[in-house]
Amino acid sequence: MNELEATIAIKNGDKNAFKVLFDLYYDRLVAYMVTYTHDKMRSEDIVQQAFIDLWNAKEKLHECKSPKNYLYTITYNRFIDSINTDKRRHKLLNVVYEKALRDRIEEDSESLEKRVEKMNQIIETLPPKCRQTLEMNKINGLKYYEIAEIMGVSIKTVESQMSIAFKKIRKGFEKDNLYLFFLNLLKKELS
Length: 191
Fold this sequence. Notes:
The structure is a single chain. This protein is mainly α. It has two domains: 3-92, RNA polymerase sigma factor, region 2, helix turn helix motif (Rna Polymerase Sigma Factor, Chain: A), CATH 1.10.1740; 125-190, Arc Repressor Mutant, subunit A (Orthogonal Bundle). 81% of the residues lie in helices and 0% in strands. The protein contains eight helices and no strands. The chain has helices at residues 3-11, 15-37, 40-56, 68-124, 128-138, 144-151, 155-172, 179-190. α2 crosses α4 (68-124). It starts with a helix and ends with a helix. It comes from Algibacter miyuki.
């Protein structure tokens, strides 16, 4: 069966004739599409859809013309449709992503402010020497031995005061797993 005979038979609903055209042009069309997509699987999907379109519009085939140009045109149009669909999908995903990101930033900003406020409240409730030791270490960046010299106490006392401060902070943030994060931010937020 040649192309023209297959075309006439397809117009009359002959599935075997359709298979003849499929076998004749499938690999060529996939190779053609790979030059555009650089993706064999995507090219195969496009070509398969083009053959479905050909079957669904079989009455448009010309009995005296080879279906080759028609198939290449359908395939190319399917490729353009896939690009436009991808662009719309990416645009929609970008809009959704940006909105989610903005919401997350606002939410994180509010949460951060609440946690910093909570941290400040906890620090204010510390005993004076404990608070002073914590501030000297976390705000002023002094080492334990430097704090011990300034306060006239042993390094063990400084360690003990810091331990008390951390325990109270930990207890204040029991339900919040991010308290260690805020200990690192403490120096920046309190200064």
